[in-house]
Amino acid sequence: MIPGPTNVSDRVMNAMISPIISHRSSDFHQLYSEIAEGAQQVFETTDDTVVLTSSGTGAIEASVVNLVRPGDEVIVPVFGEFGQRLSESIELAGGKPILIEAPLGEAPTIDSIEEAFEKHKGAKAVYVVCNETSTGVRIPWLKHIGELASKYGTLFVADAVSYLGGDELPVEQWGVDLCVTCSQKCLAAPPGLSLLSVSKKARKFIEENPPMSKFFDLSNYIRFYERKKETPFTPSLPLYRAIHEAILLVLEEGMERRIQRHKTCANAFYQGFKALGLKPLVEEEIRSNTVIAIRYPQNIDDKRFRKMLDEEFRITVAGGFGDLAGKIFRVGCMGEISSHHVLATLSAVASVLKLQGETVNIDEALRITTDHLRPLKSLQQPLST
Ligand SMILES: Cc1ncc(COP(=O)(O)O)c(C=O)c1O
Asked: Mean pLDDT in the chain?
């Protein structure tokens, strides 16, 4: 139950048990075409999509080296670990990050973001972590940021690594020029692949200003796909099989129902934890539907709590990053997430708290959680495992 890698269904795991084929064969052309077309539906765009054999960090770096040139001003809201890493990548590429910072557990206001656009009219791009995995904060103003980017002629890049497939991001409609996600989070495939969508505007810029990178040159990937339905370099074939199956599962369920399932499970988690007397780190307006960050009660020790949860109940959750280490635990609410994951996690957390001396009302928490999971029934999610 960590915020990625997430649980992977048998269907996706089994898809990897197939012969290693030539990546220059017609079998691969078909496989890759189906992935690229499926990815367009996941990103909700008619623009190009690219699959990289790299984890999310590679794709984030690709988004930076393809668009940022020395001296470029880049607006970056920073409200946790992944925004911080993003700003460092921009600096490494010679860009000048314009930081809009917020304390851990909070998000920069849309007014402060708008102010940055107004103050830095020539900014080349805005890079936004949609869902800050380290704090469980989601940005609810992505559509508005897209409108600002369009108004000011700024490229809009979204780090949707722990967001896409679990929350709302119609990439083309909201004007995202580069959207980055990866295999091991809400898409519920094994780690090792990342996916990007590239708008026409971003593609034009990259073609006219090739990046200082061979492996991450996105226009090269797009050209190879257009001409041959191939990747420029050897792809991870088993992972391509896995993402192919994972995308099929997403499309069978439908994006709308999938997002609703994530929201329902997240809400059930928040309500259930509240009933146990636990406090979320994040205010309701900006709290994540995919990463649930919960504060520890005063007398609970992070390591001891997670060790017992892991060893006695076989439920693994994540701790906090940096200043939040020891103060919160984080639960992944992504991908395959369903009522049994929510109830098993909640029951186990309640039991560990009780065993470690807290007074908790398990019965009430289970009743409330079960109530809030009820809408899942009407979503008729397919059984994938
Ligand atoms: C928001 C966000 N961005 C980027 C990354 C980096 O991805 P990876 O660990 O796959 O390199 C992560 C990983 O958790 C993330 O949550």
From this structure: 97
Report the 10 Å Cβ neighbour count for 309. Answer: 21
Give the model's pLDDT for residue 382. Answer: 53
Average pLDDT over residues 37-60: 98
- Distance between terminal CA atoms of the chain? 17
Topology given in CATH for the domain delimited by 255-379? Aspartate Aminotransferase, domain 1 (3.90.1150)
CA 159 to centroid of ligand 1, rounded, Å: 9
Percentage of residues in the chain having pLDDT higher than 90: 98
For the stretch 114-152, pLDDT in tens is 999 999 999 999 999 999 999 999 999 999 999 999 999
Where does ligand 1 bind, in terms of residues with CB under 6 Å? 4, 55-57, 60, 82, 129, 133, 159, 161-162, 182
CATH class of the structural domain 10-253? alpha beta
Atom of ligand 1 lying closest to residue 191 CA: 10
Distance 57 CA to ligand 1 centre (A): 6
